[in-house]
Recover the amino acids of this structure.
């Protein structure tokens, strides 16, 4: 007999989305739905802290509850709260036909993400993944009058479909070999056909890399970020990546990634390519969102360095880095959304320090954090990852990390430089400055403070992250099919 | 009291900068400037206090100590320790920071509050670098001091600053990350040996002595400091950056920031890894000599006065490298004296260059000339510092360079020969500069009246001249005081704390 947990957050989010649906069917009211969404999210956040209500018994554990799942789940929920706070603006509230659904889709995306972080069974993981992906698809596509939204949605749909199919195929191969649906990498040496098992693992990895948008599976990310609204872009760039990375870490928690093997080599190559490719891609961009896409890819590469350096800092540094990345990236998106929603071209940002000093300062703090310069939190996060890498002797990865960070520094600093200097002669700005909504302004302030405070006093979060353990996925008693 | 003096040296400028920023929010230049000046005076008073307490504790060893936990789980502490070398460097920083704040009033007319905030933050960061004995803290300050400077150059700099500042930042940050690798490598090696994770300089120095990978770790530190110093061939960022910086930033950059590289070489390369550093010494000294000759040669060919000073600066910094790696006590003393003297003389030369640019509207020496009759007082100062820079006996630079050459002589006669040849070139470009700027016929109409010097200028240049003279005539107190303390000697203050 084994125990299975239904994590509180999953339960609360399920119930919450039902409540939201019921509210809409009664009467449409955007502001109420937004508030309801925040309440549901806050309730689920609170429920993460509580002990699990529902413990089921049975032979098929679907979810487990451990500190890694709770931490990643809390990060996901917090990031979605931030996204809701920046959502009440412009594009969304201007379109009355879809606005209530928007908040339901956000709750559902959260549900999917949280389910992924604590899934210990392939089926529950896949359900979570698809819940997240389909909600994202809806969110990307809902501005149906826009051509680029359609393009982005189509790209996302196709590539996400391919990734899901690859994942499923990989899971199927592993299931054929082991007869188990455990969400954990099988022990390849004890399989009757190790070749097929290895193929399965590599396919699973490839599917995950597609969703994580690691190089060379990254091509969709820039187009999707470009074609959607800013809040949804931050959902794609932050929330879904946290969820997927959390699940990936759990999948590989049972194996020693320090020993070279086919899949470790794949991760290594992808990490190197992501760090270099993401940064090189961002350097040449003139569109801010494409630049952020490149930056996001590079940060996935840095996270993979922590991923490949499990002992003794790997998990803790990954946890810290996820938080730092989420705070800074959400901050950049929130400022874009609040101050210069049409500021796609980076030249639109010229002279922001004169026109909106506070916003420009906050933006600089976020960029400094992404670049990894003190006193912002990104500095300590990168330091932590390098510490993990050094202790695991990942020399190659570390040199690539340094090289690519230096490249990264160039474009983050160039953005600050642009904000400090007036627009070049002859450039006619088309974007208008807007006043951030109170919620958005609060969000920006909170994120900027968090970036600085956590950068100067990272002790508390380090304590928290050091305590995080990924419990190995339990081996079910009756797992084999007769 | 003494306990909190060290963190106060970091906090006072930082908080004062913040106050200056707030004072300048209304747009007026004056209050921000006044707050900034008061802050610097306050910092100076604390420094005087620290110095008096240190002197009473006797020379050599560690004078003061401060420690409190920061990130306990990773063994990171807010740990400051002060020895003679650090104290001398702090004094240099405090002295150089005055002209930056005093003379900025003319160039910085708008957003003065922000300027003073950035300036004082840089100074706080540099103070931190000279005192931090927790390697993480050191690295934190090392990176932190660049950021405000980046802002200063970018906002108030000259044409071409965008390229220059990016180059500067990428060079220094990239090499800084290599140092981070080395720091972490050392920490991990130490953790494997003692199963304690710590960033403490003193504890790590035990491991640094015996670990077989010490050579690799030292290289990481060495490269970061070599870029900052800068050592040829890592000097590409310097002339552009100096030329594009506003006067205050170039004074700070040449006067103190370059010395953080020299300080790091002593504290973290030679003291921490004595064995591998001795192996590296021939290479480092050769590069030092190459730098002295090559950059002096380049300086001869410059027509932009700021670039000339910039190249001459790299050339003179070669002596620091030479002295530090000579492995002799006398060479080390010479290197430290050279750091102080060079900081004062180059800082003063940049004050002069800034003033010339201010009054004439150009940096091109071909367009200057014949300024002596128009501004005799100023020209006399320029002559003095040019003479100091070329190593005239009786002034500080001579002491530094002579001691370095003496130290090098014990190691290699060839290198001494070539390094001394650099002094000839140094006379060539210094005197050419004097000739082209101050003698001969007038070639330009001044954009603003030449006239007499303002009181702050006279004060700044006068104090620098007096200090150089004092250092040249009677350098022994500075040489005695500035002996770097070994990491293996437990600090006096620490003993008291226990």
């Amino acid at each position: 007999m084994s125990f299975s947990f239904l994590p509180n957050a999953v339960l609360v989010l399920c119930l919450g989305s039902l409540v939201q649906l019921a509210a809409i069917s009664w009467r449409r009211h955007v502001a109420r739905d937004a508030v309801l969404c925040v309440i549901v999210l806050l309730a689920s956040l609170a429920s993460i802290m509580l002990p699990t209500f529902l413990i089921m018994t049975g032979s098929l554990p679907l979810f487990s509850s451990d500190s890694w799942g709770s931490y990643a789940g809390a990060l996901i929920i917090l990031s979605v709260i931030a996204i809701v706070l920046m959502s009440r603006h412009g594009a969304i509230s201007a379109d009355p036909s879809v606005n209530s659904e928007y908040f339901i889709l956000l709750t559902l995306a959260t549900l999917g993400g949280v389910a992924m972080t604590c899934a210990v069974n392939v089926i529950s993981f896949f359900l979570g993944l698809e819940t997240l992906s389909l909600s994202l698809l809806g969110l990307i596509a809902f501005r149906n009058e826009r051509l680029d939204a359609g393009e982005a949605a189509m790209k996302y749909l196709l590539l996400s479909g391919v990734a899901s199919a690859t994942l499923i195929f990989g899971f199927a191969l592993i299931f054929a070999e082991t007869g188990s649906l455990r969400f954990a990498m099988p022990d390849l040496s004890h399989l009757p056909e190790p070749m097929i098992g290895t193929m399965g693992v590599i396919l699973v990895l490839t599917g995950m890399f597609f969703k994580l948008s690691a190089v060379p599976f990254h091509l969709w990310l820039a187009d999707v970020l470009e074609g959607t609204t800013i809040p949804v872009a931050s959902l794609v760039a932050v929330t879904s990546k946290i969820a997927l990375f959390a699940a990936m870490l759990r999948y590989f928690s049972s194996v020693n990634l320090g020993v070279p093997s086919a899949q470790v080599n794949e991760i290594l190559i992808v990490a190197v390519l992501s760090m270099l490719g993401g940064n090189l891609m961002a350097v040449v961009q003139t569109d801010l969102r494409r630049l952020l896409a490149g930056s996001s890819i590079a940060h996935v590469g840095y996270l993979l360095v922590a991923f490949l350096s499990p002992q003794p800092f790997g998990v803790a540094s990954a946890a810290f880095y996820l938080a730092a990345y989420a705070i800074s990236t959400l901050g950049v998106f929130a400022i874009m959304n609040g101050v210069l929603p049409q500021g796609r071209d980076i030249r639109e940002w010229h002279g922001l320090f004169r026109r909106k000093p506070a916003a420009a300062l906050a933006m600089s703090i976020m960029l400094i954090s992404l670049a990894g310069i003190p006193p912002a939190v990104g500095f300590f996060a990168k330091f932590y990852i390098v510490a993990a890498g050094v202790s695991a002797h990942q020399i190659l990865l570390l040199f690539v990390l340094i090289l690519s960070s230096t490249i990264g520094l160039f474009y983050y600093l160039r953005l600050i430089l642009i904000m400090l200097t007036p627009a070049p002669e002859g450039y006619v700005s088309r974007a208008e400055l807007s006043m951030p909504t109170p919620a958005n302004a609060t969000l920006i302030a909170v994120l900027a403070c968090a970036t600085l405070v956590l950068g100067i006093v990272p002790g508390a979060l380090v304590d928290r992250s050091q305590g995080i353990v990924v419990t190995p996925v339990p081996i079910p008693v009756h797992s084999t099919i007769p | 009291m003494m306990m909190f003096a060290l963190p106060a040296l970091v906090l006072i400028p930082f908080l004062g900068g913040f106050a200056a920023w707030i004072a300048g929010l209304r747009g007026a230049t004056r209050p921000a400037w006044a707050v900034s000046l008061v802050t610097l005076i306050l910092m100076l008073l604390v420094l005087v206090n620290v110095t008096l307490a240190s002197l009473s504790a006797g020379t050599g060893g560690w004078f003061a100590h401060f420690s409190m936990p920061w990130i306990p789980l990773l063994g990171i502490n807010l740990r400051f320790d002060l020895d003679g070398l650090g104290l001398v460097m702090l004094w240099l920083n405090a002295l150089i920071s005055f002209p930056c704040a005093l003379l900025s009033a003319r160039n910085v007319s708008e957003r003065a509050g922000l300027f003073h905030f950035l300036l004082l933050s840089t100074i706080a960061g540099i103070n931190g670098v000279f005192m931090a004995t927790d390697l993480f803290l050191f690295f934190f300050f090392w990176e932190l001091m660049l950021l405000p400077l980046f802002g200063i150059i970018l906002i108030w700099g000259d044409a071409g600053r965008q390229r220059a500042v990016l180059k500067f930042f990428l060079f220094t940050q990239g090499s800084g990350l290599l140092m981070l690798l080395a720091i972490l490598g050392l920490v991990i090696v130490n953790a494997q040996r003692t199963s304690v994770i710590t960033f403490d300089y003193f504890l790590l120095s035990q491991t640094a002595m015996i670990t077989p990978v010490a050579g690799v770790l030292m290289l990481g530190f060495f490269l970061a400091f070599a870029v900052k110093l800068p050592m040829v061939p890592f000097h590409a960022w310097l002339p552009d950056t100096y030329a594009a910086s506003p006067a205050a930033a170039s004074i700070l950059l040449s006067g103190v920031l370059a010395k953080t590289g020299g300080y790091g070489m002593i504290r973290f390369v030679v003291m921490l890894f004595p064995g591998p550093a001795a192996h590296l010494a021939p290479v480092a000294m050769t590069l030092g000599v190459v730098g002295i000759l090559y950059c002096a040669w380049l300086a001869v060919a410059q027509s932009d006065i700021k670039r000339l000073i910039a190249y001459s600066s790299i050339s003179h910094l070669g002596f620091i490298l030479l002295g530090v790696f000579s492995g002799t006590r006398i060479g080390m003393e010479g290197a430290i004296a050279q750091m102080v003297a060079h900081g004062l003389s180059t800082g003063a030369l940049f004050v002069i260059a800034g003033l010339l640019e201010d009054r004439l509207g150009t940096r091109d020496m071909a367009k200057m000339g014949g300024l002596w009759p128009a501004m005799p007082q100023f020209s006399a100062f320029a002559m003095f510092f040019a003479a100091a820079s070329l190593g005239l006996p009786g002034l500080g630079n001579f002491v530094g360079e002579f001691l370095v050459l003496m130290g090098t002589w014990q190691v290699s006669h060839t290198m001494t020969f070539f390094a001394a040849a650099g002094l000839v070139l140094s006379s060539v470009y210094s005197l050419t500069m004097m000739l082209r700027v101050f003698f001969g016929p007038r070639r330009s109409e001044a954009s603003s009246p030449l006239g007499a010097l303002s009181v702050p200028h006279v004060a700044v240049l006068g104090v620098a001249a007096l200090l150089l003279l004092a250092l040249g005539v009677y350098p022994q107190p500075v040489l005695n005081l500035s002996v770097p303390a070994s990491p293996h000697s437990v600090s006096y203050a620490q003993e008291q704390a226990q």
In short: The mean pLDDT of chain A is 87. The CA atoms of residues 374 and 392 of chain A lie 24 Å apart.
